[in-house]
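Anyone have C-alpha cells for FAD-linked oxidase? Sequence:
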Amino acid sequence: MPARRQVLQAAALSVTGPAAGAGADLLEPESKGPPAGRGCVPPLGPVTVDPDDSRYQDLVRRGHKRYVGSPDYVRVVGSTEQVVQAVQEAVRDGGRVAVRSGGHCLENWVDDASIQVLIDLSGMTQVYYDPERNAFAVEGGADLEQVYRRLFLGWGVTIPAGWCPKVGAGGHFTGGGYGVLSRTHGLVVDHLYGIEVVVVDGAGRASAVVATRDSTGAERELWWAHTGGGGGNFGIVTRFWLRTPGVRGTDPSDLLPKAPASTIDFSCTWPWQGLNMDEEKFARLIRNHGEWCERNSAPGAPGTALYCDLTVARRATDVNLTVGQAHGPDAERLVEDYLTALGAGVGTPINVVRERKPWLTAALSGPNASKLYRLKAKSGYLRKRYDESQVQAIYRRLTAERDPELIIGSVGFASYGGKINTVAPSATAHGHRDAIMRVLFMSTWNDPAVDERYDNWLRALYRDVYRDTGGVPDPRDGAYINYPDNDLADPAHNTSGVPWHRLYYKDNYPRLQRAKSRWDPRNIFTHTLGIQP
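Reply: yep, here.
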C-alpha cells in the first residue's frame, strides 16, 4: 500500500514537459555566460556518443520507461556555441533532431525511432544572476532542483514552478510552468524576461538569438511564443532569463517572488474499503473538492495560498489520495478548513500527515517516482467542477474491474486559478487564464505487451467523461501542453472535430504559427503535436 500511495503522489504532483536590449541579438554564443565564466572552457562537451559507446544506453534511457530511442548519435553539449554547431551539423546531414533537458516528456517526442540526432543539454545547468540583463539566467539543461536551490540560497527568491524537482527547466518553462506557488505568483512564463534560442533560418543556417519582452517585431514574437508554446517547436532554448514584470531596481533579491520561510505539506487517504466508499460518497468527495476550488480560486483570495490535489484511483488499489501545500500566516487554518470541507459527508481520512517544513526542504522533497512504470496520460482544465454525469463516468470506470496488471488508473484534480487568472489570454502563449482546476488522467503498468490495452483503458475513461463534448474537453476548457497526448491529433481517437491545437492553445495558435514560419520555416523542430508553419 505505501508503494501505491507513492506512485499516486508522483502522478498527482509531477509537472512535465519536453523541451535586455530592444530586439534580438545574434550572439557570439559564449558572450552571455556567467560573468565569472566568460572566456573559460565550457564545463562539459561537446561529446558525441554513438551506439557502440558505453554511455549510449544511459543517454537514450533518461526519459520515461516506455520510450527508448535509437538515434545515430547523442551529442552532449556544454555551451550555446556547441548547440549551434550540433544543430548545424544535423541540418547539413539531413538528420531529424530532438533535444533533451530533463527527460520527462510523456510522449515519444524525444525517444523515437524517427529521431536521428539527440542533443542532450546535460552540460548546461548554470543558474546565476546576470547583471547585464538585470535578470536571473537559467541554462536549458538545469532541473528544478538546481533552480530552486540556487535561487533560494543565493538570493532568497524562487519561481512558481512544479513540485517534481527532477523535471527539466527546458520543457517545463516553455509549456507554461505550473506549480504549487502558481495560485499566489502565477506561472513561470509570467516571470519570463527573455530567452536565448538556437534557430534555423530558411537557408538552413543555425544561429543563436536572444529575444526578450522588451524586444519588438519578430523578436518579441519569438519571446512570446516561448511563454507557453511548448517545447520542441521553434528551436533549442539554451538560456532563460527570469524577472517579474514591473519590478524596479537592480537588487537581485527583489527581482523574483520571495520564497516562503516555511510551508505545511499535507496528505491523507480516503480508502474505498475503510470508508465503505459507495457511489454517493465517491461523488461527494469529488464535489467537495470542486466546490472548494470554486470558492477559493479568485485572484487574491486567501485560499490561493493553498495548493491541493485530489487523486481518485481504481477501487482495486483501495487508495484515493489528497496532497497539498500551504504557506503564509494562515497556513494551518487553510489546511484544516480544506480537509474539513473535503471530508464533509464522506468520512474521516486515514494516514493524515501535516508537516511544517523549511521551504527549500519542501521544494526538494517532491516526488520523483514518475519514471518507474510505463504510462499514458491525458489532461484537461476546468472552469467549474464536473457535472454529475461526468463523475458517474469516472466511478464506473474506476470500479469496473480488478485488472492486476494495471498498477494505477486515476484521475487527479489540482487546484488552479488565483494569480494565474490575472493575465490576459493573449498576453502569453499560454491562453488558459480562467480555469479553477487542472485534471490529469493517468494509467501505469509494467509489461510492454499490454501497452495498447491500458492506452485503450484510459481512452475509454477520457471519452466517457467528455461524452457530451465529443470525447475531448470542451474547447473553452482545453488541455495542458506539458501533459501532451498524441491521441488528440489522431482522427482515430479524436473524432470530436475540435483540433488538437484549439485544446492546447485556444485562440493563440495562429499567432504561434506565424512565429513558427518566421523562426523555423523548414520545420526542423517538430513532433506529433508540433506547431506547423
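The domain at 43-259 is CATH 3.30.465.10 (Uridine Diphospho-n-acetylenolpyruvylglucosamine Reductase; domain 3).
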